[in-house]
Design a protein that fits this description.
By secondary structure, the chain is an alpha+beta fold. About 40% of the residues lie in helices and about 15% in strands. The protein has 22 helices and 18 strands. The protein has helices at about 60-75, 105-110, 120-125, 140-155, 200-215, 220-225, 235, 250-265, 270-285, 290-305, 360-370, 390-400, 410-435, 440-450, 505-520, 525-530, 550-560, 600-630, 640-650, 655-660, 660-665, 675-685, and strands at about 85-90, 95-100, 130-135, 170-175, 180-185, 190-195, 320-325, 330-340, 340-350, 380, 405, 460-465, 470-480, 480-485, 490, 540-545, 570-575, 585. The strands form four sheets. Strands 12, 13, 14, 15, 16, 17 and 18 form a seven-stranded mixed sheet that branches. Strands 9-8-7-10-11 form a five-stranded mixed sheet. A hairpin with a 2-residue loop joins strand 7 and strand 8. Helix 1 packs antiparallel against helix 2 (about 105-110) and helix 13 packs across helix 18. Mean pLDDT is about 75; it is low at about 1-10, about 10-20, about 25-45, about 50-60 and about 525-535. It is found in: Cytoplasm. It comes from Bradyrhizobium icense.
Length: about 700
């Protein structure tokens, strides 16, 4: 994918500079896009496809007989070699595209009148009036042609990859003496080096912004660059080195470009070591402003890697696919790993009938996915697919190098697949929950839980602490319009003599502080305004807490002590092994409630609980990070001056050390795996 220009254009003479910087063009603050290949950005997850409905009545014998007759006619002329067949209805619409090593044998299996075939296949046969056949030299060619035709024709009875488009890349241009960094889509014809694919434009934009801070490479267009007489705003905010007006010379700028290329090529450790050495050198020479610049560049590189999440240690280049099915829908989560870095992930929701197994959906999805894009050398799957070797051979033929497809059973590769599968399950859960409107979900919740009325205001409470320290409670609010974030509240626990870890006592303080304020009746004009107010209510119709029967009984006692009788209560207990989808719901004076895993009401309740957990954990971590920053690294057991210096050299700032994963911490010289784990747990200890 590299396109390197053979000659470096000579830099122009230094331009005259003025006293004030000009503002760059509006698209320069964000990552620049190659105008020749720019495309509309559609990074939102696709909507769920409409589920094909099963027919209410059995298939009539007449149409099925007509379909069998049409297929029998095709069998007589079908070749015994490899090929692709298309089944068409009376309107010449393509119903199904299939491939076979022996086309005649495959069509014969459809023509058998008494063959035990799935209902989906019988409906397809009943609608068929014509069969068209294309012969191919090999089965590999048939597979590639089948994938291409399915994407073009979108047959009703095939698995269909929806919302497919080209992925964005990062391009460092090679046709100018001062290379530009930009986002690129489409054909890679412009000279330069391409890095990708990235899962979304957002991932590319974030990476380019951080790379500008780290390597000070320009993002402006060549026309804007040539017209400069003084540096633009990006130079002033230290996101460009100013090559347009020779604020940096040609060798210096070329070195910055080389460092950026090395980082994107997977040699990030060497680049960070070099910057750390330069920072140390400048510090020793008392050039503190220069040392601060290197520190900020180190922090920018660490920010890129922290945003990438998982960065594998043993997987250099791979695409990871995991499929999850629920409620008749499928979600395929794809992760992209290049140069040992995670370059993003994306969820797909292919259209497929409910009778398709995960293996069938995934196999068809893969063939279509790589129809118009090159595969990596390694593809990891969550499920064993039929004809895995055939697909690998087809991809090898297409790209000219060996492609391995495997389902890992252990080690880091298995962990990557498991992580992708978790994301697939969560993405599908979010989509299923979003398919119903908020009002319908509230109505369904009222019916499922037996509430006296449809709730207009739901309050969810949660606590967070670590062994009683930095204890905080939180309340989130939801209603017919979704989450009402301007009414979220956090409660710093103030009770003296609180037993560390006493969740009941913390919940009591939170609820008393919340409801005693409501119990105080308004006076005068405020009372009249409250009586005439038909807006969003201040009193909740339903209170949800995270916990089981014990937490429910404790809150019930608190409410009885406050004299609250008009508010419904519910507790949500996590399933075995904390599995989402297996929660138990507890309500006063009722048996425990277990909803079906695909029930939209259950997904809605999970979203409410997860939002409360997210909000309270965020509030807790703000308090904890304040304490950590005051104490610094000295408070971490086993971290002495040498390791502290190594960590700061590697990451630049304490904030980036907090963000680092265990794997990234383990890459610091002198930091063992055990020390990396201790450092990570110090900053990310699970709050209770």
């Amino acid at each position: 994918m590299d396109h390197d220009s053979t000659d470096h254009p000579k830099p122009p003479r230094r331009a005259r500079r003025g006293s004030q910087p000009d503002l760059p063009s509006p698209d320069l603050i964000a990552a620049d896009v190659d105008p020749a290949t720019s495309a509309a950005e559609e990074d939102d997850e696709a909507r769920l496809p409409e589920a094909p409905e099963e027919p209410a009545e059995a298939i009539a014998e007449g149409p099925l007989a007509i379909g069998h007759a049409a297929i029998e006619n095709a069998v007589r002329l079908a070749p015994t070699s490899a090929g692709v067949y298309r089944m068409l209805n009376a309107a010449s619409d393509v119903l199904y595209v299939g491939k076979a090593k022996n086309v005649r044998k495959r069509l014969t299996s459809y023509a058998r009148v008494n063959a035990p075939l799935p209902a989906r296949i019988l409906r397809m046969i009943a609608a068929t009036v014509t069969v068209e056949i294309v012969s191919t030299t090999t089965e590999t060619e048939a597979l590639l042609l089948e994938a291409n035709l399915i994407k073009q024709l979108r047959p009703r009875f095939n698995v269909q990859l929806r919302d497919d488009k080209s992925f964005p890349y990062i391009l460092i241009t090679g046709d100018h003496w001062a290379p530009q960094i930009l986002k690129h889509r489409g054909a890679q014809t412009r000279p330069g080096r391409y890095f990708g694919p990235f899962a979304s434009a957002g991932a590319v934009n974030r990476t380019i912004t951080a790379l500008q801070r780290a390597f000070l490479i320009r993002s402006c267009t060549d026309g804007f660059f040539e017209s400069r007489t003084r540096p633009c705003l990006l130079y002033q905010i230290r996101r460009c080195s100013g090559p347009c007006t020779r604020e940096i010379d040609f060798p210096g700028y070329s070195e910055l470009v080389r460092e950026a290329t090395d980082f994107l090529s997977g040699r990030s450790h060497a680049v960070k070591e070099l910057l750390a050495a330069e920072m140390e050198k400048a510090s020793n020479e008392l050039e503190f402003e220069t040392a601060a610049l290197y520190r900020d560049r180190l922090a920018a590189l660490s920010a890129i890697q922290s945003q990438q999440g998982i960065n594998p240690r043993t997987v250099e280049e791979a695409d990871v696919f995991a499929i999850y099915q629920e409620g008749g829908y499928s979600c395929v989560e794809v992760f992209f790993f290049r140069t040992g870095q995670n370059w993003g992930n994306r969820a797909y929701f292919p259209r497929a009938e409910k009778s398709f197994t995960p293996e069938e959906v995934l196999a068809s999805f893969l063939a279509q996915f790589y129809d118009d894009k090159p595969p990596p050398k390694l593809i990891l799957l969550s499920h064993d697919i039929e004809e895995c070797a055939l697909l690998a051979d087809a991809l090898c033929v297409k790209v000219g190098y060996k492609v391995e497809i495997s389902v890992p059973k252990r080690g880091e590769k298995k962990e990557l697949v498991t992580h992708a599968l978790t994301n697939a399950r969560e993405a599908l859960g979010r989509k299923l929950a979003d398919t119903a409107t908020q009002s319908r979900l509230l109505e369904a919740m009222a019916g499922t839980l037996g509430l006296p009325q449809v709730p207009k205001r739901i309050e969810v409470y949660d606590n967070s602490h670590i062994q009683g320290t930095n204890a905080v409670g939180a309340m989130i609010v939801a209603g017919p319009d979704g989450f009402i974030k301007n009414q979220y509240r956090k409660f710093n626990i103030k009770s003296e003599g609180l037993t560390p870890g006493d969740d009941y006592a913390m919940m009591r303080e939170v609820l008393e502080r919340r409801f005693k304020r409501l119990l105080k009746p308004p006076e005068g004009d405020a009372a009249k305004a409250k009586a005439d107010d038909d807006s969003f209510p201040q009193w909740p119709d339903l209170v949800i807490i995270d916990g089981g029967r014990g937490q429910l009984n404790a809150v019930r006692e608190i409410f009885e002590g406050l004299g609250l009788t008009q508010v419904s209560l519910m507790a949500v207990a996590k399933g075995p092994d904390r599995d989402a989808g297996r929660e138990t719901l507890f309500m006063p004076d009722r048996e425990a409630i277990k909803l079906e895993p695909r029930d939209p009401v259950l997904y809605f309740i999970q979203r409410l609980r997860d939002e409360a957990h997210r909000f309270v954990i965020g509030s807790h971590r703000k308090l904890r990070k304040k304490d950590i920053r005051e104490a610094g690294l000295q408070e971490i057991p086993g971290i002495g001056p040498s390791r502290k210096r190594a960590l700061l050299h590697h990451f630049g700032t304490l904030k980036e050390i907090e963000r680092a994963s265990i794997a990234d911490l383990g890459k610091v010289p002198g930091v063992s795996a055990e020390s990396a784990r201790k450092i990570f747990e110090f900053f990310h200890a699970q709050a209770g």
